[in-house]
Amino acid sequence: MSPRRKLSDARRRQILKAAVQVIAEKGLCDTGIKDVADQAGTSPALVIYYFGKKDILLAEALSFADEQFYARTAEAVAELASAREEVGRLSGQLREVRASNVRLQRELKGSVEERRRLTEEVLELRAAAEERLMLMERIEHIARVEQELEESSSELERLRNRRLLGRLLNR
Q: How far apart are the first and last CA of the chain?
């Protein structure tokens, strides 16, 4: 297609769009070639060059509007189908997320119960360790007392032996 032909097709579409806008604003009967030319930013002569007379312009404008409507409708239907597919995909993902959430909630509940059990176990072990520490302190105290008692007994025995020796010597 030559550049002039592309320009001609582009200009023709521009005029048809302008005609559709004027028809929408003024109505079919009150739409004139000058109104369309003004809306398109061109001259009435160029509008006549492309369409010949008003009846042809209006008929083609209505056909153009129908084609645009159906093209937009087809796009909307395609988007709707695509949206349905997307909704289906997202629905599947949502089901997966929900199942995952249920699984994670069960795991969390199990973790909380395990943590509670371990905390109780740690508290029991701490209490047992404190009790052992107290027992060890008592044992150490008893050992010191026994050692002191033994030392005292030894001293007493030594003193007794001295007295006995002193008595023997005094006799």
A: 155
